[in-house]
Amino acid sequence: MMRPIPKRTYWIALCVSLFLTTCCLVIYIESQNKLNQEYNEQVESVGSMIVQDIELSVHDNILSLENLRERTVESDGEFMSYFKSDATRITAQKEAIKFVEWIDRNGIIREIHPLEENKAAYLLDIKPIEYRYDDWLQNSKNDRAN
After folding, report:
1. What is the separation of C-alpha 111 from the centre of its chain, rounded to a whole number of angstroms?
2. Where are the beta strands (DSSP E) in 8-145?
């Protein structure tokens, strides 16, 4: 005949099982929290690296345009004969730059490259276009490319 298992053994087994289950849940929740925190830190890190890359690219693009402007200004307009070749090179090297235009003192677009895609803007007077003229005027007074 079998001896009956005392109720005390059941209670001990139940308590040990509950303790181990609780430990497993605590470890799981802590690891999930740590994983989420590491994931957020990685996203922030990658995001800041992307922002730096974009800022560097924009700065590089603006620098190319400012160099073209400076060459033209320093040569007192004689460098304009090279405008088309320089603008072609800049748009070929910098994918973000879709066109390059030269606006004279009177606010008229005198040169634009590529011309085919931008014929409507060629010889356009930007003075009636308030948002465009005001920005251009302010940037030209501050010796900035725009």
Report:
1. 29
2. 100-103, 109-113
* Gap between the Cα atoms of 43 and 89, Å rounded: 36
Q: Which residue from 40, 88, 48 is spatially nearest to 68, judged by alpha carbons? A: 88
Position of tokens 């307009």? 77
Angle between helices 7-74 and 83-93 (to 10 degrees): 170
Segment 54-91, tens digit of pLDDT: 999 889 888 888 887 777 777 776 777 777 888 888 88
Domain residue ranges of the chain, discontinuous segments joined by +? 9-141
Single-letter amino acid, residue 46: V
Q: Secondary structure of 34-51 in the HEC alphabet?
A: HHHHHHHHHHHHHHHHHH
Residue whose pair of structure tokens reads 């620098």 in the numeric block: 63
C-alpha R_g of the chain: 34
What's the whole-model pTM score? 0.58
